[in-house]
Specification:
30% helix; alpha+beta; 5 helices; four-stranded antiparallel sheet; 24% strand
Length: 149
């Protein structure tokens, strides 16, 4: 064939560095005292790996920035560069969990395993109750709302 033999690749077309090594760089690092956090753009170089899990990134960041609790680190918005091997995302390191619960959006708290479950009836059951109430008159409305199934 016209191509020279590729000795740098392992058999099967995969790169040799499948050991799980990656390097982290932070850019645009800012202290945000009003929201009680540090924020930055995170560049991850991971040759030979499809991607790096956020948990691994968080533990590495915790050791880099001496964070007492890796739960205070929130990573999101990662995009892998074309061709792979490099990813860029956004990171926040909160001073404590209280600040994080106060300022983070609910969906990201839920993703981190900190969000409270929604209480109350579901959408369908609310509609069923409302429609049962329409069918009765007077005092039976309260019965239809609660008791009758």
């Amino acid at each position: 064939s016209a191509f020279p033999p590729q000795s740098s690749r392992a058999p099967g077309g995969r790169c040799g560095a499948m050991t799980g090594e990656f390097t982290i760089r932070t850019r645009k690092f800012k202290q945000n005292p009003l929201l009680g956090r540090r924020q930055f753009v995170l560049d991850v170089i991971h040759p030979g790996m499809a991607n790096v899990s956020k948990k691994d990134l968080a533990t590495k960041l915790a050791s880099m920035y001496k964070v007492h609790d890796s739960q205070c680190i929130q990573l999101f918005g990662f995009k892998t560069a074309f061709g792979g091997g490099r990813s860029t995302g956004f990171g926040l390191i909160y001073e404590n969990l209280d600040k994080m619960k106060k300022f983070e959006p609910k969906y990201r708290l839920k993703r981190a395993g900190l969000g409270a479950e929604k209480a109350g009836a579901g959408r369908r059951s609310k509609k069923d109750t409302k429609n049962r109430r329409k069918k009765v008159r007077g005092k039976e409305k309260t019965k239809a709302a609660g008791g009758k199934k």
